[in-house]
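User: Hey, quick favor. My workstation is busy. Could you predict this chain's structure for me?
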Amino acid sequence: MKKVISIIITTVFVLTIVFAFTSCANNKEKATAETTVETTKEQSTVATTKPKSNNNKKSESEKYIEKEIPSLMKFIEKHYPNAEIKDYEFPVYGDFIQGYKPGDFIQVKLSENGKSFYIISDKQGEQFYTADTRSDILEDLRKYVVNLIGLDSPYKVEVAYYDSVFEKYSKYDIKCFIPSDITTFDELIKEGNFNISVAISYIDSKSDFKKLNLGKLYSNYFLLKNIKFDIAILNYRGQSYFSDGNIIENAKFYEMFRDVTDYYCLNDVRTVCTYDNDKIIDLYYHYNRKEYNGVEYAWDSTYNLDFSKSAAPKSVVTTSNEKYNSTDKQQTVINCNRTSEYYYPGSKICMYFPLEKFNSEFIIQKDNEIATYTVNDVMYDYFSHVIELNDEDINCNYKIFSAEKAKQ
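Assistant: No problem, here it is.
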């Protein structure tokens, strides 16, 4: 019996030791397994995480601005802390003939939230120019001008302004850049030394543009403040004639609206511009129109045109000694008389030929000069030809008919 009990105790003791060793082994394996899993996770995280870019690495543009114009860099960091400096350039002025000269400003391109914009500074970093409040100032300017004119609601109003220090940098898009401490339209007007351009478009308006009193736009206050205020009021012939171009790209309105398309599209043009800050140029043109003998004519109110018909010659010899035969039985005769002694350069008679009604060539005779022209280079649904009126053309006469070159 004692022997049996001894065997049982020994067996239990052995099993206990084996179980203890097995448990330790399992715990060790479990711990090892857990460590392996954690290590694998860590290695996996390290493997899938992209290394961060070095945001402290500065671009060449940043390095230049920080070194050469540190106050500009501080201005950018203060007002546009999240913006990235993309590029910079130094605007030049001049032209192709006289050559370009380095200017006094630096224009910096910034990018923030996927949008690019610019700021301008003088090279010394003493004055900064932005366009941050552009939309608000433009809207106030629109309302201001439309209220002063007092006409019916316009079809479209285009406005722009820029500091006069940028006047000679015409090849750059620096409209609406003003000193950073000016934030409203009232502040802009009070500050002075600005160029303001406005183009107001109407569609077939019956208003009398010639009698508009635009003098209130040019008070002594504006002139004393050296504000150039250029305004153009355009009355288009109809909706289909409206030209949605950026008129205010060229603020010299007294030199504009003399193109063949302007004569074709417009009924009236009134431009009032300041010149040398103390002179005002006030011009009005009404573009008369007449369709005669299948051709449409347009001319401005500086001339009166009288139309008639006469028998067309069977053949003519041009000034260049070429013979042409008429394809018309009648020719159009235009007597042209200037309405005043003043001659405005650029006055013209514009002719618009419907393509389906005319041969490829036509004759224009002025006094003893006979020239032939070809209907080609068509940009629109008509062919246009311009008769330039010169200083000596106080009274002149034109004869026009279709022709074809005579066979040799």
